[in-house]
C-alpha cells in the first residue's frame, strides 16, 4: 500500500480495493479522501452508496455517521493494508471509536463485508484508478 503521505492531493482520485487473502473485490470506485475537507465530508449529503463504491479515509482510525442517511460497512486498515477491524451495518448517527492500530478506514456499501468474507487479518491490495469520465 502506498504511504498516505505519498498520495497526491487530488479531488478526483479513486482506488480499486481487493481482498488479496480471499480473492474478492471490495470496491471498484472508492473515492480517496486524503485531505482534511474530503475526510470531514466523507459520505455526508449522499442519498446512498452504489455497489462497488466507497470512500477510503486516509489517514483515519475512527468515523461517525452523524448526518448520514443509510447504513454502511467499515473496514479499518493498518499501515500495511491489513484488516484490523470490521464493522457491519453501521447505522446513521453512530460513532465508531478509534482503533489505535488502524491508519485508514474504508466506508463501503452495507453488505460488502459479508459478501466478500472480509475479516480481521485479511490483506488488502489497493490500486489507484483514473478519475471517472463525465458524460
Structure commentary:
- The protein has a single domain, classed as Jelly Rolls (Sandwich).
- 8% of the residues lie in helices and 38% in strands.
- The protein contains two helices and nine strands, in the order ββαββββββαβ.
Q: What is the structure about, briefly put?
A:
With 135 residues, the protein is mostly beta strands. Helix content is 8%, strand content 38%. It has a single domain (4-129), classed as Sandwich (Jelly Rolls), CATH 2.60.120.
What is the tally of helical segments? 2
What is the CATH top level name?
Mainly Beta
Query: Share of helix among residues?
Result: under 10%
Strands across the major sheet, in which order? 6-5-8-3-2-1-9
CATH architect. name = Sandwich
Per CATH, the superfamily is Protein of unknown function DUF192
Q: State the oligomer.
A: single chain
Question: What's the total number of strands?
Answer: 9
Instruction: Give the termini distance in whole angstroms.
Output: 31 Å
Could you tell me the radius of gyration in angstroms? 13 Å
**Largest sheet features:** 7 strands, mixed
Strand content: 35-45%
Shape: globular
Calculate the mean pLDDT score and round it.
88
Amino acid at each position: 500500500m502506498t504511504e498516505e503521505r505519498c498520495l497526491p492531493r487530488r479531488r478526483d482520485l479513486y482506488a480499486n480495493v481487493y481482498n488479496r487473502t480471499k480473492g474478492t473485490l471490495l470496491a471498484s470506485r472508492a473515492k480517496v479522501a486524503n485531505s482534511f475537507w474530503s475526510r470531514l465530508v466523507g459520505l455526508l449529503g449522499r442519498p446512498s452508496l452504489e455497489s462497488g463504491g466507497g470512500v477510503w479515509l486516509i489517514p483515519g482510525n475512527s468515523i461517525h455517521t452523524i448526518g448520514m442517511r443509510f447504513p454502511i460497512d467499515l473496514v479499518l486498515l493498518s499501515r500495511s493494508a491489513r484488516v484490523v477491524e470490521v464493522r457491519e451495518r453501521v447505522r446513521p448517527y453512530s460513532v465508531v471509536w478509534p482503533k489505535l492500530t488502524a491508519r485508514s478506514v474504508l466506508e463501503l456499501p452495507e453488505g460488502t463485508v459479508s459478501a466478500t468474507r472480509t475479516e480481521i487479518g485479511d490483506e488488502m491490495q489497493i490500486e489507484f484508478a483514473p478519475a471517472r469520465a463525465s458524460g
